[in-house]
Write a structure and sequence with these properties.
Chain lengths: ~110, ~450
């Protein structure tokens, strides 16, 4: 089994809403970290991490100028700012949540 | 002129009321922008205007303008651009004009940008074949047409530039794209042609970075514990150069932080594809800009690339979607999570037995990972949690009845339940969001200089 790396040691992040979608931007602290994250923090990994929130699709975009990977999580906000019953209607906390991840992710039990 | 300085002193309606004052006082600005309109603010303003034809705009702006008067007097070149007009930019602008006149500043001209409000034309446009198809779901607007309360196109920078060209010192708009508040003064100062996509893209990056106020200057920064004097956080300005590049900073002596990390985080905030950020003015490539620290609390953002603007405006539509309420109780002591869950179950069961079953409900245990339900797999047992129950129903009476079920739990539930001193939760009407597109050709922005 490969050694685990904590995302919070490699990157900072910010998240917000776009209607019922959310985006989570993950920005590496170093070019080496960015290269590692490009390989290990895939759209599939992020989709698995947030699976309990039920995103219908996760798309990853690259912003190498800021060592950033931007994830669009579609339909993840249970209705979004207007309709969601959740406390976090706007996905403000998704970035902080993702930074707690250890990569590679454990398989689901 | 080597650069034009544009600062943003307000990121949303509800933002810090003192920030624009401090920014105007200390920022040595050429332009102050103030952004008040979130996606659903317009629906609230639309209902206010229905009740009162002189209401329906962001009233905070008038208070801010009153406090800005001394700085407008001292800084004759300072101009203000704001979308505070909301659903009623004329009423807002007339009040702004009166405030200036009463202060002896009648020579400062106020202009109104309107034409974004499509509601009066909605049925005509539908008949002409504009479907306002929901961008997210593909559904036709006909499904909710009878419940629509507002429909506004996001206008671009052009009508604001026209207002500045007419000599306006204060420009009050309805719905415009947030970044366009910054693009407009740059275009006005440098006379960029409307197909200079790289420069328009650069100014769009600048506008995007400052539109949320303190989020560019230390707010939300992951190293939150390294922010100097967060209570005195300075709001951002950009020194925009002729080539569309700029330096982002904040007033000297203010709190906060401007560095590559704060700027990079904000660059991607609420963005989908960063290589194609679509505004009415341009399709900007956020991945094209170099970001580097050039001084203490100064970050330079290099020239951008951009592609031609699309031939549509985005339209933000809001429609009535029933009622919601949420209430909380604090639950303390051993097995706090279990106790809170039990309280939530009791509450819903009591409602069920009297025939009150909301169409949607949610029980959250704050303190146990409720912000991202199911994502946090191992939660240490907290000393206390907050029980939050929220419901949604198309019938107001059902939601009203729900709000009366919290207090009884203080005496009839488990021990250690408290935090109920603020009265029954409020019922709020829900306005759902319907994003769509409209051909630019059928929207006619209007500019008028008030006399």
């Amino acid at each position: 089994m490969s050694e685990k790396r904590r995302l919070i040691d490699l990157a900072h992040a910010r998240s917000g809403d776009k209607g019922n979608h959310a985006n989570v931007a993950v920005l590496a602290y170093t070019p080496e970290g960015y290269a590692w994250l490009r390989d290990h923090l895939t759209a599939d990994v992020v989709a698995r991490f947030f699976a309990p929130l039920g995103p219908t699709r996760v798309v990853r975009f690259e912003a190498p100028n800021v060592l950033g990977l931007n994830f669009l999580l579609e339909n993840v906000l249970a209705g979004g700012a207007s309709r969601s019953l959740r406390t976090d209607t706007q996905g403000k906390t998704l970035a902080s949540a993702l930074l707690t991840a250890e990569l590679p992710l454990d398989e689901q039990p | 002129m080597t650069s034009v300085r544009i600062g943003n002193g307000c990121g949303f309606w509800g933002d810090n009321l003192d920030a624009p004052i401090f920014l105007a006082r200390d920022g040595r600005l050429d332009y102050l922008t103030l952004e008040y309109l979130a996606e659903l603010t317009m629906s609230i303003l639309a209902l206010q205007k229905q009740r009162d034809p002189d209401a329906g705009f962001a009233t905070d702006f008038l208070d801010v303008l009153g406090r800005l008067l001394p700085f407008l007097e001292q800084q004759p070149r300072l101009r203000i651009i704001t979308n505070a007009g909301g659903m009623n930019p004329y009423a807002c602008a007339r009040r702004a004009r009166d405030i200036l006149a009463q202060a002896g500043l009648a020579q400062r001209r106020v202009a109104v940008v309107s034409g974004d409000d499509l509601l009066p034309r909605l049925d005509d446009l539908l008949r002409q074949g504009h479907g306002f198809t929901n961008l997210d779901t593909g559904a036709p607007l006909a499904e909710v047409r009878d419940r629509v309360v507002s429909a506004n196109a996001y206008l671009g920078a052009r009508p604001i530039v026209e207002a500045l060209r007419l000599g306006a010192d204060v420009v009050v708009t309805g719905r415009v794209a947030d970044a366009s508040l910054t693009v407009a003064p740059a275009v006005h100062e440098y006379a960029w042609p409307w197909d200079d996509w790289p420069r328009l893209a650069g100014a769009t990056v600048a506008g995007h970075l400052i539109e949320c106020g303190a989020q560019a200057t230390g707010g939300l920064w992951c190293r939150w514990d390294e922010v100097a004097d967060p209570a005195g956080v300075g709001y951002p300005f950009v020194d925009l150069a002729e080539d569309g590049s700029f330096t982002l900073g904040k007033p000297d002596g203010s709190g906060g932080a401007v560095n590559v990390e704060t700027v990079a985080e904000q660059l991607l905030y609420e963005v989908a594809d960063p290589a194609a950020y679509v505004t009415p003015d341009v399709v900007a490539d956020f991945t094209s800009v170099a970001v580097r620290q050039t001084g203490v609390d100064r970050v330079q953002v290099g020239p951008a690339t951009g592609r031609p603007a699309t031939d549509t405006y985005k339209v933000s539509i809001a429609y009535r979607d029933g009622y919601q309420a949420s209430g909380t109780l604090v639950v303390f002591g051993p097995r706090a999570i279990d106790k809170a869950r039990r309280c939530g179950a009791i509450l819903l069961e009591r409602l069920r037995r009297v025939g009150v079953e909301p169409q949607r409900h949610l029980v959250e245990i704050l303190g146990a990972g409720a912000c991202v339900p199911g994502v946090v797999r191992e939660v240490p047992e907290p000393v206390e949690v907050v029980l939050r129950v929220a419901v949604h129903d198309s019938r107001r009476a059902v939601v009203e009845r729900f709000t009366k079920e919290f207090a009884p739990l203080v005496t009839s539930g488990p021990p250690g339940v408290t935090g109920y001193t603020t009265g029954r939760p409020a019922v709020r009407e829900v306005f759902a969001y319907w994003p769509a597109l409209i051909d630019k050709g059928v929207v006619a922005p209007r500019v008028e200089l008030l006399s």
